[in-house]
């Protein structure tokens, strides 16, 4: 494999079509029952090889995200390098951030997955998918999903993935009023003491395609109530999304971004105008996880 010297990777956002926290596990994590669906909304990462062994990170589009050693992108690059067990050349990473952080859209995990894929390519290393999955899981519970891509049912911490082939026909409006939720706080707030039964989320989604009332009545996110209690504005936005004609609306992940499904892009764009003070994006479902967009060698 000829290694490129500059590489661009797309890191998509995801939403959770239903999310149940089934039980607390002895290792401190929780077993989940959820469906991950990738979106066309994405961050873009560009990688270029250095002549020394340093890793650097530059971020545009987000002033609050730290580009320091604790950034998941740098952690991913170092962990991959250690796992390969060879001294690899350093990499300059440029991250263009469009996915809000701490919003339940998986942006940090998608970026980490993009680094694993991008750095292996740039180094000309064929790292087995299993190894990437294991490294991904050390970095975050959602990372394996972004390596795999496509709509998937997830169990365990979120890493036991079953791909699910379905065309989701809706336009997706995302709304976040600037509320950022720390995932560990959200799990503590739910305080799952009693084990919960898993709903057949795939069955709900399948039936919801022809009868969306099923989604509205039965598809839940266990984080929603605790986040709405702490941030009542999230409950108000959900109501307003339904008043604006949403087919279905729910909070994604541990929040606080709400997603609303609409029949057409026009409907979603019209509804988005009701939230001029908030972060909104109209996007679509996407069929892949992290994807290499462009490779160039220096003499091209
Ligand atoms: O794996 P990730 O870094 O995304 O998890 C952040 C935190 O969320 C964990 O430290 C844990 O407190 C909680 N978590 C959990 N069960 C999961 C995923 C995350 O309790 N399945």
Which characteristics define this entry?
seven-stranded mixed sheet, binds cytidine-5'-monophosphate, 300 residues, alpha+beta, four-stranded antiparallel sheet, 32% helix
Helical content (DSSP H or I, runs of 4+): 25-40%
Q: How many angstroms does the end-to-end distance come to? A: 17 Å
Task: Categorize the overall geometry.
Answer: globular
Helices and strands, in order, run as EEEHEHHHEEEHHHHHEEHEE
Bound molecules: cytidine-5'-monophosphate
Q: Sheet with the most strands?
A: 7 strands, mixed
Strand element count: 11
Average pLDDT:
95
The value of Rg in angstroms is 19 Å
What features would you describe in this structure?
The protein is of the alpha+beta class. It is built from 10 helices and 11 strands. The strands form 2 sheets. Strands 1, 2, 3, 4, 5, 6 and 11 form a 7-stranded mixed beta sheet that branches. Strands 8-9-7-10 form a 4-stranded antiparallel beta sheet. α1 links the parallel β3 and β4. The model has no long low-confidence stretch (mean pLDDT 95). Bound molecules: cytidine-5'-monophosphate. Cytidine-5'-monophosphate is lined by residues 29-30, 32, 140-142, 157-158, 183-184, 187.
């Amino acid at each position: 494999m000829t290694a490129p010297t500059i590489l661009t990777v797309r890191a998509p956002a995801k939403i959770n079509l239903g999310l149940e926290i089934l039980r607390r596990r002895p290792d401190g994590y929780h077993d989940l029952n959820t469906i991950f669906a990738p979106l066309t909304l994405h961050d873009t990462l560009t990688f270029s090889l250095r002549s020394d062994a340093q890793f650097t990170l530059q971020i545009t589009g987000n002033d609050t995200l730290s580009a320091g050693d604790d950034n998941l992108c740098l952690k991913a690059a170092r962990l991959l390098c250690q796992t390969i067990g060879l001294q690899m050349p350093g990499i300059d990473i440029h991250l263009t951030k469009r996915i809000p952080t701490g919003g339940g859209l998986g942006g940090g995990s998608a970026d980490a997955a993009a680094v694993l894929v991008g750095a292996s390519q740039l180094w000309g290393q064929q790292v087995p998918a299993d190894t990437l999955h294991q490294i991904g899981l050390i970095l975050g519970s959602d990372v394996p999903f972004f390596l795999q891509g496509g709509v998937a049912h997830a169990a365990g911490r979120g890493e036991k993935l079953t791909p699910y082939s379905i065309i989701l026909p809706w336009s997706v409006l995302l709304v976040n009023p600037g509320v950022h939720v720390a995932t560990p706080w959200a799990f503590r707030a739910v305080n799952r003491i009693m084990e919960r039964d898993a709903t057949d989320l795939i069955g709900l989604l399948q039936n919801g395609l022809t009868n969306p009332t099923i989604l509205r009545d039965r598809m839940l996110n266990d984080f929603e109530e605790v986040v709405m209690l702490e941030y009542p504005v999230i409950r108000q936005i959900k109501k307003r999304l339904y008043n604006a004609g949403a087919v279905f609306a729910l909070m994604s992940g541990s929040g606080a971004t709400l997603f609303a499904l609409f029949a057409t892009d026009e409907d979603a764009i019209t509804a988005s105008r009701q939230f001029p003070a908030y972060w909104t994006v109209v996007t679509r479902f996407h069929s892949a996880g992290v994807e290499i967009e462009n490779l160039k060698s220096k003499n091209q």
